[in-house]
Design a protein that fits this description.
Pathway: Carbohydrate acid metabolism; 2-dehydro-3-deoxy-D-gluconate degradation; D-glyceraldehyde 3-phosphate and pyruvate from 2-dehydro-3-deoxy-D-gluconate: step 2/2. The chain is of the alpha/beta class and 220 residues long. It is 43% helix and 15% strand. The strands form two sheets. Strands 5-4-3-2-1-9 form a six-stranded parallel β-sheet, with helices on both faces. A three-stranded parallel β-sheet has the order 6-7-8.
Length: 220
């Protein structure tokens, strides 16, 4: 049996259905656990129902658990997953999907066996080909702007036209549209929707407004 056949096409379908819910996925680094639910609620009320919570903070896993309980209608992904052990933690807190900044053979192997779909991070065609070999068809392109941005993604479409991407890194309200105009881009990820100053001030109304602006501007 080839590696490729181990990964059911349902995994691609699952990621597609998640990414089709919103063209913009807010990337959250939650420093205070008490911010988790109000922050996520503001984004969801603004119309962004797919969230990525990164494992860059100590309370991230607890935050994901709380968001899942409070907002069952949201799709919550776990970002900055670096190891199979962290992937398992994401499964345990009920993640809908997992996102990695880059990808190792160990993560690809684990992802093939997991019931939680992975959006593996790639920055080059070689990395993309490795994921392809494992049966992956949907990828995070990171760091997007630093890795060639829109031009790089256009070039990727030549040799591997069936790959689809969620670019993240250096994307904001001013350039998101350039990415979303590409055929091989499903959605974009960004932290511009949750500025630290607004989160620190607990200004959930302002964050709801930013989410609403993005949801309306980049609607499918």
């Amino acid at each position: 049996m080839t590696i490729e056949k181990q990964l059911p096409s349902t995994r691609t379908t699952e990621l597609d259905s998640i990414c089709l819910k919103a063209e913009v996925i807010p990337v959250l680094a939650i420093a205070r656990i008490e911010d988790a639910v109000p922050l996520a609620t503001a984004l969801v009320e603004g119309g962004l129902t797919v969230l990525e919570v990164t494992l860059r903070t100590d309370c991230a896993l607890d935050a994901i658990r709380r968001i899942n309980e409070a907002l069952p209608q949201a799709s919550v992904g776990v970002g900055t997953v670096l190891t199979p052990a962290q992937y398992r933690q994401a499964e345990q807190v009920g993640a809908d999907f997992v996102v990695t900044p880059g990808t190792t053979e160990a993560l690809y192997r684990y992802g093939v066996t997991s019931s939680v779909p992975m959006l593996p991070g790639v920055a080059t065609v070689s990395e993309l080909m490795t994921g392809w070999q494992y049966g992956y068809r949907r990828f995070k392109f990171f760091p997007a702007e630093a890795s060639g941005g829109v031009k790089a993604l256009k070039a990727f479409a030549g040799p591997i036209p069936d790959a689809r991407f969620c670019p993240t890194g250096g994307i904001g309200i001013n350039n998101a549209e350039d990415y979303l105009a590409l055929k091989n881009v499903m959605c974009v990820g960004g932290s511009w929707l949750t500025p630290k100053s607004l989160v620190d001030a607990e200004d959930w109304d302002a964050i709801r407004s930013l989410a609403r602006e993005a949801a309306e501007r980049f609607h499918h």
